[in-house]
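Narrative of activities, Objective 1.

The group set out to show that a structural description can be obtained from nothing but a protein's sequence at a throughput compatible with the screening campaign. Below is one input-output pair from the validation batch, recorded exactly as produced.
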Amino acid sequence: MTATRVKLSVMMFLEYFVYGAWYVTASTYFIETLKFNGGQAGLAYGSMGIAAMISPFFVGMVADRFFSSERVMAVLLIIGAVVLYYVSTITTFSSFYPLLIIYALTFMPTLALANSISFDHIENPARDFPKIRVLGTIGWIVAGVLVGTLGIESTAIPMKIAAAGSLVFGLFALTLPHTPPHAAGQRLRVRDVLGLDALSLFKDKSFTVFVVGSFLLVIPLQFYYTFTNAFLNESGMTQAATKMTLGQASELGFMLLLPWFLTRLGIKRIMLLGMAAWAVRYLFFAYGNTGPNLWMLYAGILIHGMCYDFFFVSGQIYVDEQATLKIRAAAQGLIAFVTLGIGNVIGSWLSGLVVQAYQITGPNGAITHDWRSIWLIPAVGSAVIFVIFLFWFKPKPDVKSPLDEVGMRIAA
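Output recorded for this entry:
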């Protein structure tokens, strides 16, 4: 393995270690320690969605035109380390929330920068990128195991760990291979930054159904990302953060199975399986417990690979197939804006309101939740979107993707 490959692999490990160190367990900290209500916790999680809507424009206007990617990344990570550490010391929502948005604005662009730096310095992206990107998933798992083993999920320590990791990562980024701005000197067009050329794909009715359905599905999906850790801890599961990393481990397995399924079932059936998996997961959570039905909680975690890979990774493949080479990047950016951006924000906010509506205050002031009622809502929502896709999504042609193509989509 070359020195460059090692550096890129370490970069991916640190990128997702920083992300996973605080993001997974934050809901427990928000609700149990800071005493945020469900709506406030949802808004806090939505800060990453707000940043996801803005960061592509930043990358397109600054990193691609004026400064080398590794230096932009280093500056963002070091600033983010300072901001996140300060956020970990704040206990009032009115101050915490805007500062968390500022942190998210420093971190989210680094996700795209990490990918672009990797692609710039590998010979064969289809062959080499998955081997580098998989270190990101391992970094996420290591962060979860560390936080869960230390038993610090309800404290501010995970944020401090992420801040320290961000500082180390920022300094390390200065050693990454030089990646100059590729669009330096080119005229900046608003059309290019916004990816408006991808709007031509909406002439295809099935593509429109795909985009609308993806947006709608992200809304119930945010229940999982925002409140699973709080739910598992409140249910009495020990080392919940560690056990949640089983979901990332399952992603690797389902990623290997995805090409086999795609060639036999086609893109529509695979995506329907992914949507059905989300509904089933929420039913497992609704009726699972730490007693006789403990297996349901584990099943709900382990099915994460099917939930994510069979819908989102397949969706990225579908977009690549539908878009021409000229607008492919814009099309992927459009989907990210709709799902990771708008859908994330709305889903985090609505899930927070639902959790708040089913909050129970005990006689001694202890706060619990009616989790069965909470989880049944996204289960029904996912099932409804399944029906929409079943009858109105008619892609042509069906996608049959080789392993190398699928491997490039390995996700955190």
